[in-house]
Amino acid sequence: MTSSLTNNTSPFTILLVDDRDENLLVLEELLDNGNRQFIKATSGNEALKYALKNDQIGLIMLDVQMPEMDGFEVAKFLKASPRTRDISIIFVTAINKEEQYVLKGFEEGAVDYLSKPLDSNVTKAKVNVFEQLWRSQQALKKSASDLAAINKQLEKFVYMVAHDLKSPLTGLLTLLHLVESTNESRPMQQDELANYLSYLKEAGYHQSTMISSILEYSRQSIDQQASEQVDVAQLLSQTTKLLFPPKHIQIHIVEPMPVLYTKKIKLQQVFQNLLSNAIKYNDKAQGQIEIGHTDKENFIEFYVRDNGPGMTIEQQAKLFALFRPVGHSQHESSTGVGLNTLKMLVEEQGGSLRVNTSPGEGCTVLFGWRK
What we know:
Helices cover about 50% and strands about 20% of the residues. By secondary structure, it is α/β, with parallel strands linked by helices. A 6-stranded mixed β-sheet has the order 1-3-2-4-5-6, sandwiched between helices. Helix 5 packs antiparallel against helix 6, helix 5 packs across helix 8 (about 265-280) and helix 7 (about 230-245) packs across helix 8 (about 265-280). Residues about 1-10 and about 320-335 have low confidence and may be disordered. It comes from Spirosoma linguale (strain ATCC 33905 / DSM 74 / LMG 10896 / Claus 1). Pfam families: HATPase_c (PF02518), HisKA (PF00512), Response_reg (PF00072).
């Protein structure tokens, strides 16, 4: 097999099949343009072996008259296999020019015929057409693959947004119910009511800002998403307020926290979801959550540590499966947030996400974030 590349374009691979080596050499010399790759087979069996192993073959130039297995039989086998049925085949022959044999070739899967002795200009022109066709097909496949990836990202993004908005909204509604029930049991003092309203107003404004940020983020490509100076301590303070943690849950931010130039909404998504899960699944009378960091050259490694129930090995195995419930107890029906999505956000920054946990010993989630 020989190849020669003169530019960055992917080589076009041609399988040449003929029982005579001199014919293979002539064909290769005729068709080589510096950006084509040739595989040469001297029998039908050898041709089938190469075709089944190499998924980059774009064209097969197949001699009809060969011992043991002729070109018609080879084409029949190629078209019967899902791996090779879409490869274009040109029959090359010095015999059987009658219409019945030409039709037989097309019935077995050929897309064109070349008669020996070959006309060099016609041969080159036909192969050029099939190369252009193959490149167009590859471009379509890539577009389809890219579209599928975008749809998958959109699905995950919608899931993340839904969770991000649900957490603070749940806290806000809980606070409203608290105000309502308190007012029903006893008249509320003016300053007490003002305090509650202040919390509600702050939560409402913060959620409105979050929605605007998410909408802006969704309209931009990854390259367009702007970075900004982010005071992590301030970000965490806002995020914890928005989650309205119950009174028995204490959240401690180990300061000082760094100031990073990064994409704020992504860092906020990671912290908000980790804190939301740490609050939601904590089973202690006095829940403790600690957020800290370690400076590691080009990265900051953050951690979110809780004194909750921890997880079994079986539960840990489900952590990175999107949309699968972790289930911290037999009564837990919520799906939680799969760490798979958070893992992807972290890996976009070049970092990694890991979990240290065991049953009854709480859980620590650590993730790296580029400075």
